[in-house]
Write a structure and sequence with these properties.
This protein is an alpha+beta fold and 142 residues long. 32% of the residues lie in helices and 38% in strands.
Amino acid sequence: MSESENAAIIRRWFEKGWNQRNADLINELFAPTFRAEGGMHGVLDRLAYKQYFEAVTSASNDLQCEVVELMDADEYVISKIISKGTHSGTVSGIEATGEFITTEIIDVWKIVDGLIVERRNADFDNSGIGEQINQRLKFVPE
């Protein structure tokens, strides 16, 4: 069974946007009224989501998102990805640790007329990231 047009849009965002650090895809794939909720960042509009993207990719210059599963339900696509990368730069006030971090993320995306209008984070392993970063931090001498 071939992938739906909406699922292909989300796959493209992960593979060409996140994995290839192509922030310009936000202007192409995301509606001007785009809104993201949940995860580590709270609520973001399209400009703030682009800033989030740039902060994350600069804090982990080898970040890769593996698309594990895409489930299509009309105008909604549910994505399950595994994000992997080295914490090589400062993000959210946390200095680089050099730790390789793996995180599972489940999002619900809404697509209307070929544009992403909404992303709701259903599951983001915040505690797992914290444990992976703090594992190194707790051994740093004061």
